[in-house]
Model the fold of this input.
Amino acid sequence: MPILPSEYNPPFLFKKSHFSTIYNGLWRKISPIEQKRERIELSDGDFLDLDWSYSSKITNRVVILIHGLEGNAQRAYVLGSAKIFNENEFDVCALNLRSCSGETNRLFRSYHSGATEDLDALVQYILQTKKYTEIYIKGFSLGANLTLKYLGEDRTIAKEIKAAIGISVPCDLHSSCKELLKTKNIAYALRFKKNLVGKLKKKQQLFPDKITLDDVKKVITLKDFDDIYTSKAHGFHDALDYYNSCSCLPFLAKIQLPVLIINAKNDSFLGPECYPYEAAKQNTNLYLETPKYGGHVGFYGRQNITYTEKRAINFFNEEV
Done:
């Protein structure tokens, strides 16, 4: 599919990558929406917490929202999406990945960029217990990579899944990691590391036979975290093996339903390999839009509705 042109042209301040990223991540406020929490049990003995919000009209359409690294279903970018979907006759199931709902998950493992088994468990749960005939998925950053990997894996995708959209997708995890380790991103990297190490300390207390305090102290960078915990807890040899195995880039060619990727060219989290131009040209199901501006999960829009929130509504309505 040819690369899509982009009409996104924000006000001056929001043309700056960091301002756009920080505004939507920390400063943006969404008027409260009613979310109802539901917990589902997983086959491995763990759980997922879901935060549901509903259209004012009965609908057969539901959107699964999947947050990014150290996010949750109460982040502004998730709430903003949920609100506009609800206003356009979609119900919303906002997934909190393992350990991201405010409660530590039960197992030594947690969530990661390629844990598609959890997304599949959620899809199967919806199919078995709800009455939706159309399922859509919108992922952000880590959640977007997970979504696209899921759709391109060697599995039977439920016919009810109609389309998906990925925002600020780190299609090549190693490329993204290298960007996050650069000086320009030090504030973000430190914030991520602080949160991740905090959770790791709780894991160490629960599973002292699997990880030691000395191991925790060795986490200096985000790559260290993936070498010491993510890879070992989830069956990978090391961080590089994890990145290579879980990047969605190799899976894009096999996606067989409409997918839109929106990656800003000024996204400081994404390296060159995260812009899958060739994959989009070769797969008629894959649409790629690379606006000049937007930052990472930014895309400021007027009336407190982001550009990508509007694009998602239009894309899903077009693909019905």
In short: The beta strands are 36-41, 47-53, 61-66, 91-96, 134-140, 161-167, 259-262, 286-289. The CA atoms of residues 204 and 211 lie 6 Å apart.
